[in-house]
Design brief:
This protein is of the alpha/beta class and 223 residues long. It has eight helices and eleven strands. The chain has a five-stranded parallel sheet, sandwiched between helices. Strands 6-7-8-9 form a four-stranded antiparallel sheet, with helices on one face. Strands 10-11 form a two-stranded antiparallel ribbon.
Length: 223
């Protein structure tokens, strides 16, 4: 999933981005609310983590403007402002969750998982397609009860496919979900990771789950 981190403390911004990347997220980062609105207009994000006190435009103003233009991207406020009135104000403006600094990264990850599940209309962190199972919280994939070891990027591509089970995803849609703006790679990177996943998930099995729709993209489904 793709996350936007909006935090003006650059060291903290880098730490958050690094930890989220290590957890398998694709991460873009910016340093004020005005810049965040540009990012959110240019790409689709599964969630955004906003600081409140920032230069140019604070987090409250940015999220209010985000909601006014009809953008429902899930937002978590991450801030040192711990007064009840501040939390209420942030939630009333349209934020989905609120976490106080200093915070546990494990809690931040858990809240992001819960927030994105609610946004997707799912109450669980386990997604299935036939005998294939992906557990986001445990970062575990099995097929037919057999555990499959995936790299972070392979897991992210499969997560993208299984969340949209039955729907065809284009190369651009997968790239936008899995890779951040500053990624520099070849145009066939999605093809390469689909190939990796096929070898690990479908190779040697009678029933294939990953299918190519020529000229359009890929779909995860039972046939």
């Amino acid at each position: 999933m793709r996350i936007l981190v909006v935090e003006d403390e650059r060291d903290l911004n880098r730490i958050i981005a690094r930890r989220l990347t290590a957890a398998g997220y694709s991460v873009d980062a910016c340093y004020d609310g005005a810049e965040a609105l540009d990012f959110l207009e240019a790409a689709e994000y599964d969630a955004a983590v906003f600081d409140v006190m920032m230069p140019r435009m604070d987090g409250f103003t940015a999220v209010r403007r985000l909601r006014e233009r009809g953008d429902a991207t899930p937002v978590l406020f991450l801030t040192a402002r711990d007064a009840v009135a501040d939390r209420v104000a942030g939630l009333d403006l349209g934020a989905n969750d609120y976490l106080i600094k200093p915070f546990s990264f494990d809690e931040l990850l858990a809240r992001l998982r819960a927030m994105t599940r609610r946004s997707a209309g799912s109450a669980v962190s386990v997604f299935t397609c036939g005998d294939l199972s992906l557990d986001e919280a445990a970062h575990r994939v099995t097929r037919g009860g057999e555990q499959i070891e995936l790299s972070m990027r392979e897991f992210a591509v499969l997560d993208c496919l299984i969340r949209s089970k039955g729907s065809v995803l284009s190369r651009e849609a997968i790239e936008n979900s899995v890779w951040s703006y500053d990624w520099e790679g070849g145009t066939n990177v999605v093809d390469v990771y689909i190939s990796y996943l096929r070898r690990k998930i479908d190779a040697g099995r009678e029933k294939k789950l990953i299918h190519t729709v020529r000229g359009v993209g890929w779909v995860l489904r039972e046939e």
